């Protein structure tokens, strides 16, 4: 099967598996697993932050960040379509006890003017105070877009002037860095905390990093234990993340190229409306008058050996390190034949 459902479906290659097998181990709850510590130091270095923390999942990393910054009853300003708001099972309300103040746009951006209009710093006991501004880069639901760094910095500065810090859900920040030809540290610089997923385009089997200043990461360590994220001989999987950071960042350009190639070919099909990809996420929409339903389109493609995912006739094809040029051609041929 050619699996284009997500870049989370990758499997460790031989070199990554060897690194996992050879990793020196300790007990990370006691903070003496050398491989975990090396991963955290490498992640903090790349993101330009003081400290890092290895966390089992990206959702847990984001939710711990909310608890680091917020108290129950606080408010978070974020994009209406962002992952942390829409796709983390209501954890912000259930675990951090915060509510959202969303801003909408087509590309995932939030201008300084829009942020200023939504910040609430008040002694009025009727309203929730804004405790955090949250961004997502790349922005998944808006097409894998790379946020404009100048606009982002202006919005973060606007919030900072009111004493409100910012968190970045950087699940695919490595993709943003390659697409924008900027360093990870430059993209992460405006933010007090940054999460970076190791199991998406970077290809590790699991794990995320949460990076920031030492005081906030010390608080995050306690919350990680509270949330059940403390692992023992975690160096086995941390080694995969370390390998991914050191070997899989530059190759993300290949995923971006393949997404663009498929987009150009699919755009010639009258049954589809294709959104031009900026990174490895390609979105396209099946015409409303086409006889195939969303489920029918997915099922017939699966019969042809291609897995994608969609809803309401909008589909996503995600390119990753397990997809080569032959897979691209086969997937494209299957879609063309079906339509």
Task: Provide a descriptive summary of the structure in words.
The chain has 339 residues and is an alpha/beta fold. The protein has 14 helices and 13 strands. Helix 1 packs across helix 11, helix 2 (34-47) packs parallel to helix 11 and helix 6 packs parallel to helix 7 (149-160).
Summarize the structure in short.
42% of the residues lie in helices and 17% in strands. The radius of gyration is 20 Å and the shape is globular.
CATH architecture assignment name of the largest domain:
3-Layer(aba) Sandwich
- Provide the CATH topology of the largest domain: Aspartate Aminotransferase, domain 2
**Largest beta sheet, briefly?**
7 strands, mixed
CATH superfamily name of the largest domain?
A: Type I PLP-dependent aspartate aminotransferase-like (Major domain)
SSE arrangement, N to C: EHHEHEHHEHEHEHHEEHHHEEHEEEH
Which structural category do the helix and sheet elements fall into?
alpha/beta
Going across the biggest sheet, name each strand in turn.
2-8-7-6-5-3-4
Cα-atom Rg, whole angstroms? 20 Å
Task: Report the total helices.
Answer: 14
- Uncertain regions spanning at least 5 consecutive residues: none
**Alpha-carbon distance between the two ends:** 19 Å
Beta-strand portion reads 15-25%
From the spread of the alpha carbons, the general shape counts as globular
Number-wise, the strands total 13
Helix content: 40-55%
The CATH class designation of the largest domain is Alpha Beta
| Count of domains | 2
Mean pLDDT: 97
